[in-house]
Amino acid sequence: MQEEKxxxxxxxxxxxxxxxxxxxxGVRFFCALSACRWxxxxxxxxxAPVVDPTANSPQSLPEAIRSRAKRWGIPFDxxxxxxxxxxxxxxxxxxxxxxxxxxxxxxKLLTTFAALDILEARRPDFRFETVLWRRKGDGPEPALVxxxxxxxxxxxxxxxxxxETLAAxxxxxxxxxxxxxxxxxxxxxxxxxxxxxxxxxRTGWEKRWQVGPDAMSIGARTVxxxxxPRAGGAADVRMTPExxxxxxxxxxxxxxGRCVDWDDRLGLDxxxxxxxxxxxxxxxxxxxxxxxxxxxxxxxxxxxxxxxxIRTVWRRLGGVWQGRLRSSASGxxxxxxxxxxxxxxxxxxxxxxxxxxxxxxSLNAGAQSLFLSLSQERTNAASARVVARWLDEKGIDRSRLxxxxxxxxxxxxxxxxxxxxxxxxxxxxxxxGDAADEAAWQAFFASLPVAGVDGTMRRRGIPGVRAHxxxxxxxxxxxxxxxxxxxSGRLLSVYASVSGVEAMPGATAFLDGVLLWMTRLxxxx
Length: 525
Prior knowledge:
With about 525 residues, this protein is α+β, with helices and mostly antiparallel strands.
């Protein structure tokens, strides 16, 4: 979900951390290749579980997991496991699976699974709608109103298509202000405007995961800087979307070395001018072994970002805008309904595509927008009640669930490992139902990052492992949830979580090892 610096000093903490992380990951990769890392604890012909699947004592754990927990410094009271064979319905391992903990971004699987079921049932081929309204004639009212419909993946390209439609109607000059209507989400949801983070106030930028939900989100108000190595020892830097008043350093030097925590080692500064302009500069170098890669950051609050983008788009289309941008969350446009006509409409991508983007890239704002949209009131409390009723209908025990929001970023979120095991099993079971349920399962499964291939698991390839898992990261939590394809052809579900700051240095290596162990586990007949 979120991933948490280079002048010459007697002690450079960021360099130390980067090197320590590189050593840990290097050791993890070497051990993954070693045949002795996760020894098979029984012959492939075993007909019974190799461990007690419901015991909570460390002595009940397979020796391979117990020894690796010790190797990576994971205390036995700091991790939880729920592993099941979905083909047979057997629980293969449950360890501290009844202990509530913060699951981080793995809770997005609950949000997206519920959304696929609830929203599609409410309206087949569910789409979010964004509307651009144009004022009839002259007047003191805003010339245009951009009415947000909660689309969690509305992009800069979507906005440009809408303004192209406006220009095609013969509009050349926008005489007056543009109002953004953010009233789709209730004011009680407290989502707009979200206060800028302390990092933004200090540095002038923040990472994408820190951007909150918005009823009229445009590209999560972030820009992407793509680094493209070329001959001559440099990488070109490309920013998208380009924004009015934002300039950036167009090249950075290349360096040798492994592609580990490259974005932290690169370093980024934002020079802020009094007239509102920004210039982005990079302090460090880019590792050539990274190939083409990108970082996604926010440089402005929601209104400033939208105004920059609209001015850029409208100028590109040959238009003139004589006004400014303002926003409202009170539904102001509806009080002026008779004065406006629809200039353009935009329908979101299908829900399956939205869920794929949210889970692959762990989009916090997108997941929270989806969560709020589950209820008619569009508040956290109301949506939590909708999810509770849905869980009851599915027969899933929610007694240990605390769901203050839908992204996992809220540290008050709690559930137990068995709960997520039940969610994963229910999604799989739905795929064996009617056509609608099967489509929801296929969309859900396809949304999960594939180890070593894409999403948040792109750089976590594990030799011999085909895993489809959602990751979770908070300051004191590392977790994963999803499915592992066993060599036998059977599908296993897994939820694994490590908690506690002291366990974080080895947590990712331990979790990846759990996935590897699952592929070597002899399954009962």
